Amino acid sequence: VQLVESGGGLVRPGRSLRLSCAASGFTFDDFALHWVRQPPGKGLEWVAGISWNSGSIYYADSVKGRFTVSRDNGKNSLYLQMNSLKTEDTALYYCVKAQYSRGGYFHSWGQGSLVTVTS
Amino acid sequence: MVLTQSPGTLSLSPGDKATLSCRASQSVPINYLAWYQQRPGQPPRLLIYGASTRAAGIPVRFSGSGSGRDFTLTISRLEPEDFAVYYCHQYDTSPTCTFGHGTRVEI
Questions:
Q1: CA dist., res. B7 & res. B9, Å (int)
Q2: Cβ contact, residue pair B46, A111, below 8 Å
Q3: What is the pLDDT of residues A43-74, one digit of tens each?
Q4: Quick check: A99 contacting B, CB < 8 Å?
């Protein structure tokens, strides 16, 4: 299993950024996927999750209405569209594979993509 | 669901036994509780799922127990590589979940 995040970088508050996660080594459309973030020096925060067929999508309250998670099973890719970014969104964003098609524990993690929101 | 981990920091020596606690604000359905280890500069690694099942390749010195609202991760004899941060994680049959704030195990 390999999960490779990209798209992070430095961005001003109020702007947008789109993260991507390229997956390989497993049957992509069999599993739910998540984004989990970790601010520098702090703990893990679950951000969003999407089921195998995009039929179930959930967000943390802290990002609801600003972030949109999506997946393209034909391209084995997961995305996170982040709008109206705030300084508190600064974090390392991990792409995570769940164990089952709709949920489950987190068996595989990417290395993360760093997003820095600063003026 | 809120997960409260204690203590925040555990100061121990190699060879010691470590006992980490995770308390949920409500009963965890079907013991859907996992533990992860995170070393500096690395992503988290799955240790335990289903409250007590060791993930593949995890040494037997790691064990999980508990049910309902109270869960424990025990490391029977600490090895130097075990000094890290540990997180508990409540997961579900839907794509939503919660993490605890972590326990740092330090020398």
A1: 5
A2: no
A3: 999 999 999 999 999 999 999 999 999 999 99
A4: yes
The DSSP H or E segment spanning A18 is strand A17-24
Determine how many CB atoms are found less than 10 A away from the CB of residue A15.
Answer: 11
Instruction: Verify whether the Cβ–Cβ distance B49 to A49 is below 8 Å.
Output: no
Chain B contact set for A57 (CB, 8 A)? 95
- C-alpha R_g of chain B: 13
Confidence label for A101 from pLDDT (cuts 50, 70 and 90): confident
Structure tokens at A33: 């996927």
A106 and B34: CB-CB below 8 Å?
yes
pLDDT tens-place string over residues B73-99: 999 999 999 999 999 999 988 778 899
Identity of the residue in B43, B49, B95 whose CB atom sits nearest the CB atom of A102:
B95
Angle at B91 between CA B85 and CA B95, to 5 degrees: 120
What local confidence, expressed as pLDDT, does residue A103 receive? 87
Q: Do A50 and B95 touch (CB under 8 A)?
A: yes
Q: With an 8 Å Cβ cutoff, are A58 and B87 in contact?
A: no
Smallest Cβ–Cβ distance between B43 and the set A45, A49, A111 belongs to: A111
In whole angstroms, what is the distance from residue B23 CA to residue B69 CA?
5
Instruction: Report CA dihedral (A53, A57, A63, A64) to the nearest 10 degrees.
Output: 130
